[in-house]
């Protein structure tokens, strides 16, 4: 991380409350997260849990839990039982979330954080700010960020993982625009090219391609779908738009990559975005795959990241 990009106002805070995690800079963040090297982010809490479980089962990484036994006082029996249950779960090899879970669910397995970010760029942006501050207070170094998710493919077959070279706005431009004091500020959205190539180099039997990822602040209208509650375009206009995006190098559409790329580039954090296509949007809007197929598709980006993490530990030289 580029320390020069870090907000200097943080130095004036006696305690920084990481509200959405239920943690603060007064906690032992160094002991909890100081060894973090990988932060895997995905939309749903279920996926974050599943990925944490796979890290433990496939790489043998230990599941970590930092809860403390509450004082045995009247009215706290429920908290005591919850703590005991969490300890039992960890000992049996099941991940337990750290901190609050109202907005995000975060797990620590070995040197990796697996955390949900919700749906859309605003939700993901909040997480990015707080997890980055958390790692700063923890003294973590040389860590990388990854987003794992699902998407609509643009000219790629279902099951294909798109490793993004950059995030695109719906205009097709490689930019993410935020408002600062009511004025628009444009940020660059390029992902780390060396990291992307390294990940592609360890893909093995997983179908994966390099391409741009368009991000929309909406699932239906902004993504040029014809199946929303209302529709403002014709089928011909939809097809022309998607063909235009494809011609610009776009290979999938989702709802977080541009903001993710912009944040990581500004903060100097190496990052990769790996989203599997659930369908080819050039052929339709509805996801028609079976639950079994969708489960296999969703597993692809997770397995790709696990293969990458394993390869870095083995010191493999990847072409």
How would you describe what is shown here?
The structure is a single chain. The strands form three sheets. This protein has a five-stranded mixed beta barrel with strand order 7-12-11-8-13, surrounded by four helices. It has a two-stranded antiparallel sheet with strand order 1-2. A two-stranded antiparallel sheet has the order 9-10. The chain contains eight helices and 13 strands. It is α/β, with parallel strands linked by helices. The chain is globular. A hairpin with a 2-residue loop joins β9 (176-180) and β10. The protein has helices at 29-33, 45-59, 77-91, 121-138, 193-201, 235-247, 257-267, 291-314, and strands at residues 17-18, 23-24, 38-42, 63-64, 106-109, 112-116, 144-153, 161-168, 176-180, 183-187, 208-215, 250-254, 271-280. The protein has two domains: 16-142, Nucleoside phosphorylase domain (Rossmann fold, 3-Layer(aba) Sandwich), CATH 3.40.50; 149-319, 3-Layer(aba) Sandwich (Rossmann fold). The model has no long low-confidence stretch (mean pLDDT 95).
